[in-house]
Design a protein that fits this description.
Elements lengths: L1 H7 L2 E11 L2 E12 L3 E5 L6 H9 L6 E7 L4 E4 L12 H8 L5 H11 L16 H15 L3 E5 L7 H13 L3 E5 L3 H7 L2 E6 L2 E6 L2 H41 L4 H21 L23 E10 L9 E9 L3 E5 L6 H9 L6 E6 L5 E4 L11 H9 L3 H10 L4 H4 L8 H14 L4 E5 L7 H13 L3 E5 L3 H6 L3 E7 L2 E5 L3 H9 L1
Parallel strand pairs: 3-7, 3-8, 5-6, 6-7, 12-16, 12-17, 14-15, 15-16
Antiparallel strand pairs: 1-2, 1-4, 8-9, 10-11, 10-13, 17-18
Helix pairs in contact: 3-5, 4-5, 8-9, 11-12, 11-14, 12-14
Length: 510
């Protein structure tokens, strides 16, 4: 009986999948198998091919080579990383009808409410009017309501606030079908995944367990690669030491074949070494310059005095009667639900919006930087040109700044329209830290970040002498940030709170 059940299990298998776009190979011999009820997280650096792999599994994209095999009649539902343009003109009701069906509408409403958005109340609202978080909740709620055999989610945590993320983790833990998801949220990976699939060099590397198990497996694999690399290095030195003798003998007509064989082996090994480089197990670190000067050391940087803001011709204020101080060296984490007014509050601080009441006063000569998660670049410019133009720095300095963000020389020359969302995010970080500001505002900087860039950003935030005001819903990032204080935005008010993160999340939930 158990044997029969095993063979009835629904599975999806990828065998030797290759995928190329133009002349660039994204996947090269990738393989994996997932069974009904399993939870696989796909990880890897930005641009490695994670989303491409998920699209192939979803049937949205045909592989250039290889096969996709499905055992049994399989129902899959795919939630992409970004909202598709064809859905923007639909109402919430229209989107539900298309992606879940009228009969499942009550279930969609229920999941939406759990995740923090009242879909029923806003059913006639157009999707283009929704925030990124609201769009994501609508799409995920439809996927959960459909209850497919395999739920495919591409970075489901993006745009969700910290409370919604915790609720999503609970829903996925209870989900009975298979779940394949791309994620950079370590808490989500550890809470949900029973396997982690890393996409690296076009291939897939599978490890059992959650995020830490994946890291341990990866380090073991890298140690093996390093041993092999060192073995090849020793062989190169041996060949180089003996090649001169063999060349002299060949010149006299002796051992010509041995010389040609050794020369070919040496050339191949050197070329392979140059292409691969030494496997690296250490996290990339950022060396930060000190911020402009010490004139603000120990001083008040900013005073927020009783500010309120609301848009004209709209009912009520978004933020009201907020008074706070920002002092040198603070690492402030601003917590709040999606739609509560966090971005509006930040724009008031930076002068992009003028409070209708109260004032924001900055220390004289303060150098500030604002990280905008939606900032766009000229699609025909590359990262190197953007940093040179924006920061007015010489070539060598621009390359050093981009190097801190783990841009290779080749990547610096690729136009931004051909970079991944995460790689464009690294350019934004380069512009912020490269300016050496006294005060930095980060608005949701952890979206789309691969593990290496996540580590780079965290290390940079912990080492910088700049004062930081951070909006993020990444639980692990907040936990790892040093010397932090919390500001809580709830009910139009922002208050400084000396409390545990879990207690503040619970307060936001209620």
């Amino acid at each position: 009986m158990l044997e029969c059940l095993y063979f009835m299990l629904k599975t999806i298998s990828l065998k030797n999948i290759s995928q190329s776009f133009m002349e660039r190979t994204i996947l090269d011999g990738a393989s994996l198998k997932v069974s009904e009820g399993q939870r696989l997280c796909i990880v890897g650096e930005n641009g490695a091919g994670k989303s491409t792999l998920l699209k192939i599994i979803a049937g949205v994209l045909e592989p250039t080579k290889g096969s996709l095999e499905k055992n049994g009649h399989i129902r899959a539902h795919y939630v992409p990383q970004e909202y598709s343009k064809e859905n923007l003109g639909k109402t919430i009701g229209g989107y539900i009808d298309t992606n879940a069906g009228i009969s499942l509408t009550p279930k969609v409403y229920r999941f939406g409410k759990i995740l923090g958005f009242n879909l029923e109340k806003n059913v006639d609202k157009y999707c283009h009017e929704l925030s990124g978080g609201q769009q994501k909740i609508l799409a995920i709620s439809c996927g959960l309501a459909v209850a497919p055999d395999f739920l495919l989610l591409d970075e489901p945590e993006n745009h969700l606030d910290i409370v919604s993320r915790k609720e999503l983790v609970s829903l996925l833990q209870e989900y009975r079908g298979g779940v394949l998801f791309v994620s950079h949220d370590r808490t989500m990976i550890d809470s949900i995944a029973d396997k982690v699939v890393e996409v690296l060099g076009g291939k897939t590397h599978i490890s059992e367990g959650g995020y830490q198990d994946y890291i341990d497996t990866k380090l073991s694999r890298i140690e093996g690669m390093q041993r092999e690399y060192e073995k090849e290095e020793r062989r190169i030195r041996q060949l180089q030491a003996g090649i001169g003798i063999l060349e002299a003998k060949a010149f006299r007509g002796k051992e010509v074949s041995a010389y040609q064989k050794a020369k070919k082996e040496l050339e191949e090994l050197k070329a392979d070494h140059k292409e691969k480089g030494r496997p690296e197990d250490k996290k990339t670190k950022v060396v930060l310059q000190q911020s402009g000067s010490n004139i603000h050391g120990g001083k008040l940087l900013c005073r927020i005095d009783n500010i309120s803001f609301g848009y004209p011709n709209t009912k009520g204020d978004i933020i009201k009667n907020i008074s706070l101080d920002i002092r040198k060296g603070s690492h402030i984490v601003l917590l709040g639900r999606n739609g509560s007014g966090k971005s509006t509050f930040l724009k008031c601080l930076m002068g992009n919006l003028s409070p209708k009441e109260g004032s924001v006063s900055w220390a004289e000569g303060l150098k500030t930087a604002y990280f905008d998660q939606h900032a766009e670049f000229d699609p025909q410019k590359n990262a190197f040109q953007i940093v040179c133009d924006e920061l007015h720095v010489p070539d060598q300095k621009a390359r050093a700044i981009l190097g801190m963000m783990k841009f290779s020389k080749e990547k610096m020359e690729i136009v931004t329209k051909d970079l991944s969302g995460g790689e464009r995010m690294r350019i934004r970080f380069a512009l912020v830290f490269g300016a050496n500001p006294d005060f930095i505002i980060f608005d949701e900087p952890t979206n789309h970040l691969d593990e290496v860039t996540w580590e780079i950003l965290l290390d940079a935030c912990n080492k910088t002498t700049s004062t930081i005001l951070l909006v993020t819903h990444d639980h692990e990032f907040i936990a790892e940030l040093q010397n932090k204080t919390f500001w809580l935005l709830k009910g139009q008010q922002v208050k400084e709170r000396a409390a545990d993160l879990e207690d503040l999340i619970e307060e936001l939930r209620n």
